[in-house]
Amino acid sequence: MTDSASLEKKPFRIGLxxxxxxxxxSLAAALDPFRAANRRAGKALYDWQVLSPQGGDVTLTTxxxxxxxxxxxxxxxxxxxxxxxxxxxxxxxxxxxxxxxQLRARGITYxxxxxxxxxxxxxxxxxxxxxxxxxxxxxxxxxxxPDLTPSRDRFVIDGPALTTxxxxxxxxxxxxxxxxxxxxxxxxxxxxxxxxxxxDRPSPQRLVSQARLASLAPPVARAIALxxxxxEEPPSIAAxxxxxxxxxRRLEMLFRQHLDTAPGTFFLRLRLSxxxxxxxxxxxxxxxxxxxxGFSGPSTLxxxxxxxxxxxISALRAERQ
Length: 321
What we know:
The protein is of the alpha/beta class. 51% of the residues lie in helices and 15% in strands.
């Protein structure tokens, strides 16, 4: 991306590539923070152009249509944001994938929103990169594209490749970019204008939808909330079950019914996901991370971390530097 000096001279140029069957929330999350930044700053810090493969009307999932310009022969922008939704097989054409591959050669940063990471991955732009998508699709994403490293973070920045897990994480990412370009004060003003409390750093997407679980299986939702709250000193599964007025066997049955896993396995995944976030987002030592995630010591964490993530914490950190 351009440095702060060049940003003061001319607007940061954004090309928003909108594919049919995208959702309105993702589109708004991708553009409205920059519109609000311009308004709060009183000048054009950001400029954007809505693009589509052929130009003309683009129909969203709501039935709303938006006017777009056709893709230029040669990309010329600071950031390309690709918003996609359904029917990716139809929309991610060979011609579009070929056009996207020029971004890497031209040194243009690219961002995938909602279905966007899938299209970027099909173009080969996420090979060797860490990337995310919506948590419900993450396992399928990893299986479909073995050359990338999937992440449960709400958004991921790996070199020129930016990916988000949905509309709300997209807001987090765009506010992060505004903060990077123009400072925390402006980013805070934009967040306040949008009545949004952003995640400043990448943080894990929930392994499950708490809202959905709260309606379908309240004891499971409450058990997960307890796990999240007591991660530093993990209670036993029996204690978690008692807190819900259940036997350990009954709690396990509910977990398997609704999450297809045992509560102990789920709790371990939760702790290891937090350990990975702390490894990437903080300078905490392995011993401190072990304490925060309820492991008896660094060696215990190291063994579990390697089994779960295929590498050590030090290797993960070195890879992301």
